[in-house]
Write a structure and sequence with these properties.
Layout: H1 18-31, H2 36-65, H3 68-94, E1 107-110, H4 112-115, E2 125-131, H5 137-152, E3 157-163, H6 164-173, H7 175-182, E4 185-189, H8 191-206, H9 210-228, H10 246-260, H11 267-270, H12 276-300, H13 309-318, H14 329-357, H15 363-370, E5 379-381, E6 388-391, E7 394-397, H16 402-405, H17 409-419, E8 423-424, H18 426-433, H19 441-444, H20 447-458, H21 462-472, H22 474-478, H23 480-483, H24 499-515, H25 522-528, H26 536-545, H27 556-567, H28 575-586, H29 590-597, H30 603-613, H31 616-631, H32 640-657, H33 666-680, H34 686-694, H35 698-703, H36 706-721, E9 727-733, E10 738-746, H37 751-761, E11 766-773, E12 778-786, H38 792-810, H39 816-825, E13 838-842, E14 850-857, H40 862-872, E15 875-885, E16 888-897, H41 906-921
């Protein structure tokens, strides 16, 4: 206690003129003698003005030196002095006790984060008023005077008033209070009273309870990570509570302080917990995270701890990051952030290993931090190797020089751990990290090392082992192209993880696809069983490398293929398989793009895709890679609709590649889909079921999944029995965080535009759409919109408003352009992202239609604007394929002129392109209906 994490507060006291302010307070007391309320108000105003000025100075210095820890120390010192001034004012001018009794003593103590001697600009202030016995009138008055003044200054204050006995009693029973007292720091008042608390806390609470405290803190840490999101590579991390954030460093110090009774972090070196290099890492991580957190508070003006997209660029600029070819300034900043988060995780593992070795805590809980199972034997020889041992069910080194003796051991240690289902001893991982200079060209070209690596990649639990290889730096050194994307963030809302984390997760999902049994991956799992055995390794290495060239100025797919052509021969691939890997990487986005943004019932779409994939075997491999890639992007990105689109594209293309002799030809597949529907949906008489099946075109049966078909059949029947010309069914997809509106209406050329406008007017952002028409002229459109409310009931009411608006527009009672314009006028214009608008007009993607592909920054009302603009350009929209990828909207429209012909004239195409580019690029276009 009475300590701070940092050791250098030099110069802090010259940034807050305590003597001058104290003199001003004394003058106020004299001026307002006898008028306590007036004095209190003037005192609060004086100190608030001084605090604002001191914070402005602190921010100016932070922008200049970019040193967040010093800023936090400076702000903390200012707060210390304000509380000391307040205590002096309360005890000298307001409640002076001329002959104090033994009970009229008080120690004012900082606790919690404030007790560490570091404060972010908008942090709470935690105070403990220590009394010798029970509360007295004098003590209550002094504490209230301090607190009311702090509140009047606009500060957030957590406080408690307790005797020493109460502190000890509550600390025994409450781990939160125990931690707060562990971090207490004396501010002002009666020092002997504080010293008594410290002595009794050490003797009566801490002694003999280290294991209990460590267990509680590590369990608390696990729960915090669960709430914040387990991965330390989430692209909008929580700087304070996220994995690898400041709270993890605080937890390390709490544990070290409690177990080893240290007062400063530097003492951890003396105790042998960290060596000098690890201690420097601890300091460096803390410095960086404090820089981020202080800037985050200053920019947001509140206690914001989430490093959201709209904050990241501003913080990057404040910290001096600049753009490089292929990487924005914000992406370079976030890469640094994730590297720091990784270092924090390494420090945690080191401390946990030290505690386990000393048995400072019971084995089972701690083992979850550093091992999978508790050992049955302490140490034993490793089978198949004299260089490693099994230590508490973790692989460890038999001798310190095993890597220098044989550098292949840097790969072999991971192979043996995987083969024998062992966790990694942190001491071994520490040595691995310090031996990375041994990963040179000789090791990279070593056949045994490359063989072992490929076995790691294609064996069980590859995701876990690859992640450990990545965390130690071995993976990035062994495959240097991978090292360039370690901790690289893509500044967009589509990808949830850093590039390296995404690739490693994709390997995990690829193994799940290969194992089978998961209904999410039925098609991909079935295809995996049918690929040629020699291509198993091909799809694994292609999955690991498909994004390895991200962050380069050129197209990452082309650059990645070039990386594969250099790397694969080294890994043992033949020339033919190397080219296959390169092709998969070069085309890894193609199948997803075609499936989600092309008309799969258009013969030209299928023929064009067949020309790209060239063979059924290559299409199988591409389907497997595409599935793993989409699933690895993040929660909710993969769904049944995308799975169905990939299935449809695969089976539509297969007959083209086989010359018409397909395992399942198109007519047969349509019949099978209808038979599947008949078997699952037995609620209607056969005649009614036959009539209903005849109402849908073949594309519907091939593209829509079974459960959705059943829901829509019930919906259509109920709507028509009720006599509704317009009906809306509302569904909720929790995994994707969207609300689905299924709309049944008489088909109308402007129907999609009307639906889009109604959604925009209700503030609903469309993220994708499935558009179908029936043979009897009804439109069946399913629109997915981003959720606005947590409660399904509220989302349902919003959907009802959208339906009412569509009906009013169709009846001519409401003019959408005016409603959309009013809504847009009230919409904020926060732009965290910049997406260059693109419009492509193509007649090669369809024999009947001109295909317009539009890509730009997504925003409420965009689909309405686009469909309105296209209609006003005298174009008929035959079908639309709407999708969003984070902040990027990619919409594809199949159109003709008013006579049903393609748009061939170059001048006409140029005019269409110019109008749509202008619409996408305009800042104010949401408020102006497209002309």
């Amino acid at each position: 206690m009475d300590s701070i994490v940092t050791e250098d507060r030099s110069g802090a006291d010259d940034r807050f003129d305590t003597a001058r302010i104290t003199a001003a307070v004394d003058a106020l007391a004299e001026k307002h003698a006898g008028r306590e309320d007036v004095f209190r108000s003037a005192l609060a105003q004086l100190l608030k003005a001084e605090m604002i000025a001191a914070r402005a100075t602190a921010q100016a210095v932070l922008l200049k030196d970019r040193h967040g820890r010093r800023c936090a120390e400076r702000l903390c010192f200012m707060q210390d002095e304000i509380i000391r001034i307040l205590y002096a004012a309360a005890t000298r001018h307001l409640y002076r006790s001329h002959v104090p009794s033994g009970a009229e003593r008080m120690a004012v103590v900082a606790t919690g984060g404030y007790g560490r001697g570091l404060m972010a600009p908008e942090s709470d202030i935690d105070l403990l008023f220590i009394l010798p016995y029970k509360q007295t009138a004098w003590g209550e008055q002094v504490a209230e005077a301090i607190l009311y003044c702090l509140w009047d200054m606009g500060l957030k204050v957590g406080h408690a008033t307790r005797s020493v006995d109460e502190c000890i009693r509550q600390a025994r029973g409450d781990m939160t209070i125990r931690t707060a007292i562990l971090e207490t720091r004396f501010l002002t008042g009666d020092r002997p009273l504080y010293d008594e608390l410290v002595a009794r806390f050490d003797k009566d609470v801490v002694q003999g309870t280290a294991a209990e405290f460590v267990t509680a803190k590590l369990a608390e840490r696990e729960e915090r990570h669960r709430r914040a999101g387990q991965s330390r590579y989430l692209v909008e991390p929580n700087v304070k509570d996220g994995k690898g954030g400041l709270r993890d460093l605080h937890t390390l110090f709490w544990i070290a302080k409690y177990v080893y009774r240290v007062r400063e972090t530097g003492e951890l070196v003396e105790r042998g917990v960290f060596d000098a290099q690890e201690y420097r890492t601890f300091r460096r991580c803390a410095d960086f995270l404090w820089s981020v957190r202080c800037n985050l508070h200053f920019v947001s003006g509140r206690a914001e701890e989430r490093l959201s997209f709209d904050m990241q660029r501003e913080i990057a600029v404040r910290l001096g990051y600049t753009s490089h070819p292929g990487m924005q300034d914000v992406e370079r900043f976030m890469k640094h952030y994730f590297l720091v988060a990784k270092d924090v995780g390494d420090l945690t593992a080191i401390l946990c290993a030290k505690l386990e070795d000393e048995q400072a805590k019971p084995a089972p809980v701690l083992s979850r931090m550093v091992a999978r199972l508790r050992p049955s034997a302490k140490r034993r020889r490793m089978p198949d190797s004299d260089d490693f041992i099994i230590d508490n069910n973790r692989i460890n080194l038999a001798a310190p020089d095993v890597f220098k003796h044989d550098p292949v051991n840097l790969i072999r240690i991971f192979h043996l751990a995987q083969k024998n289902n062992l966790a990694f001893h942190p001491d071994a991982m520490r040595t691995v990290t310090r031996s990375l200079k041994l990963v040179n060209s000789q090791l990279r070209e070593n056949p045994e090392a490359n063989r072992l690596f490929m076995e790691i990649l294609t064996s069980n639990d590859a995701e876990t082992v690859l992640r450990r290889m990545n965390e130690t730096g071995v993976l990035g050194h062994f495959i240097r192209a991978f090292g360039k994307i370690v901790s690289m963030m893509q500044f967009n809302m589509y990808h949830h993880y850093t590039v390296d984390e995404h690739l490693i997760r994709c390997i995990g999902f690829l193994q799940e696809i290969e194992r089978g049994g998961n209904d999410e991956f039925t098609v991909a799992s079935d295809l995996f069983r049918k690929i040629q055995p020699e291509h198993r390794a091909v799809v694994y290495i292609a999955t690991l490398l498909h994004d390895v060239a991200k962050g380069r100025p050129e197209d990452h797919s082309i650059a990645g293929a070039r990386v594969a052509r250099r790397l694969c021969p080294r890994l043992g691939f033949s020339a033919g398989d190397t080219e296959l890997v390169a092709w998969l990487i070069e085309e890894h986005l193609t199948m997803s793009t075609v499936a989600q943004s092309r008309d799969l019932s258009d013969r030209k779409t299928i023929e064009n895709f067949a020309a790209v994939v060239q063979s059924v075997e290559q299409m199988k491999l591409l389907t497997i890679l595409t599935t793993a890639d989409i699933r690895g992007v993040g929660p909710g990105v993969w769904n049944g609709w995308k799975a169905q689109l990939l299935r449809t594209l695969y089976y539509e293309t297969e007959p083209v590649l086989t010359g018409g002799f397909s395992e399942v030809n198109r007519a047969r597949r349509i019949a099978l889909a209808q038979a599947e529907f008949r078997a699952a949906f037995t609620e209607w008489p056969e005649a009614e079921l036959n009539a209903y099946i005849g109402r849908h075109y073949p594309a519907y049966w091939l593209k829509v999944d079974l459960q959705r078909k059943i829901r829509q059949a019930r919906f259509i029947r109920a709507s028509e029995q009720a006599g509704h010309q317009l009906a809306i069914n509302v569904g909720f997809d929790e995994a994707r965080g969207v609300t689905e509106l299924t709309i049944l209406a008489t088909d109308h050329p402007w129907l999609l535009s009307i639906i889009a406008g109604a959604c925009a007017s209700a503030g609903a952002n469309i993220v994708d759409a499935q558009i179908y028409t029936t043979t009897d002229g009804r439109a069946l459109d399913t629109i997915a919109i981003s959720r606005e409310y947590d409660r399904d009931e509220d989302e349902g009411r919003r959907a009802t408003r959208i339906g009412e608006m569509i009906e009013q527009v169709l009846e001519g009672k409401l003019r959408l352009p005016e409603v959309v314009a009013r809504k847009a006028a009230n919409r904020g214009k926060v732009r965290a992202f910049v997406v260059e608008p693109e419009v492509t007009i193509n007649n090669q993607w369809s024999d009947r239609y001109t295909v317009i592909e539009v890509s730009g920054l997504d925003r409420p009302g965009l689909l309405y604007q686009l469909t309105t603009a296209i209609s006003k350009l005298n174009l008929n929209i035959a079908s639309a394929h709407v999708a969003t990828f984070g902040e990027r909207a990619r919409d594809v429209f199949y159109v003709t002129d008013l006579l049903g012909a393609q748009i061939n004239a170059p001048t006409r195409q140029a005019a269409i392109k110019s109008a749509l580019i202008h619409l996408l690029a305009s800042e104010d276009n949401v408020a102006k209906p497209a002309a």
